[in-house]
Amino acid sequence: MRADRLLSLLLLLQNRGRMTAPELAAELEVSVRTVYRDVEALGASGVPVRADRGPAGGYRLMDGYRTRLTGLTDAEAASLFLVGAPGPARELGLGAVLATAQLKLQAALPAGPADRARLVRDRFHLDAPAWFRDADPVPHLAAVAAAVWEQRAVRVEYRRWSGEVRQRELHPLGVVLKGGIWYLVAAPAGEGVRTYRVSRLLSVGETGEGFERPAGFELAAYWEESSRRLEAALRQGVARLRVSPRARRLLPVQFGAPGVRALEGAGPADGDGWAEVELPVESQAVAVGDLLRLGAEAEVLGPPELRSAVAAAVAALAGRYAVPVAPVAPVAPVAPVAPVAPVVPVAPVPSVPAAGVDGSV
Q1: Rounded CA separation 151/174 (Å)
Q2: Which of 242, 275, 282 is nearest to 258 (CA)?
Q3: Residue 110 gets which letter from DSSP?
Q4: Phi and psi (nearest 5°) for 26?
Q5: Which value, to the nearest 10 degrees, does the dihedral of the CA atoms of residues 206, 149, 224, 167 take?
Q6: Per residue of the chain (361 residues), what is the pLDDT tens digit?
Q7: Can you tell me the distance from the alpha carbon of 44 to that of 42, in angstroms, rounded to the nearest whole number?
């Protein structure tokens, strides 16, 4: 809406001072020509916008002018809970709303706290997703979030981890961003609360019906308890390993918190720097793949069945990657060499005086 954009433009100039038309266009996600028109509209409405020419020019408000139009809408107030995560806010469809709410807050603050808020924004940034992993495509996240906000039931198609596709009617209770991955917490009609990965939603449709949230349900408490149950279900055993100094550095990176705990209980290092650790692992099939990521920097000592499974996997890899050696042709025997006759010493030749230039000796 143009009115919202004009207010955002006004607040940008009030909070940041002089800004060029391209800078305003980038902030408002419009064209430079639209900025020119909006500045003219602000001036026509009585806002004292000044245009300074030259390399250091731009638009600014007349000295001493401040607007008090800083009331937050419901959506803007709600978006402030995502102030540290602008990327997720955009995925939820709240990017522009969050930006406007931040501008209003800055405009409402007196000079000292407002300057402090700008310093914090310039010096601290939260980037939630993990390294070296692309974010999941979540084309239905906005629809799911809208259903959560408005407390409406939805009918979804969902692909399970096994590949099976199911249709369910869900009562969406909340969304959670964990390690850059979005999850939907919802209750299937007539069942208990469950967790669904948003990227596996194939379709989301409204049923047109509302629902009642479970009495006493708290999203944060549910997620914490659910995470504990998942961790306990996944970590089904403990592997006893002998690890090199390099593997000890890799454990926290590749195994997260279990790797950190394994290092905390590590035994003393031997002369080569290798030490024994106990690492919680998932099922044997998963554990084999996880432990092979450590390569030759780790040796599985137990349990015996896990050691055997890793050994079998290593043997299969060795057989798959072994390069056959071409047979070498036999070399023909070399004929014996005849003995060499002894060398007869030569009598020394007497030296002859060198001739002079005129032939004299």
Answers
A1: 10
A2: 282
A3: -
A4: -65, -40
A5: 0
A6: 566 777 788 778 887 888 899 999 988 888 999 999 888 888 877 788 888 888 778 998 887 776 655 554 555 544 444 444 555 545 555 455 556 555 555 555 556 655 655 555 555 555 555 655 566 788 898 888 889 888 999 999 999 887 889 999 999 998 887 777 888 999 987 788 999 999 999 999 989 899 988 888 888 889 888 888 877 666 778 999 999 999 999 998 888 888 898 999 999 999 989 999 999 888 888 889 989 999 999 999 999 999 999 999 999 988 888 756 555 555 555 555 555 555 555 555 554 444 444 444 3
A7: 5
Residue 109, φ and ψ in degrees, nearest 5: -80, 145
Residue 228, amino acid: R
Contacts of 15 (CB under 8 A, 6+ apart): 103, 106, 107, 114, 118
Residue pair 207/154 in contact (Cβ under 8 Å)? The answer is: yes
Contact 306, 278 (CB under 8 A): no
Q: Is the pTM of this model over 0.70?
A: no
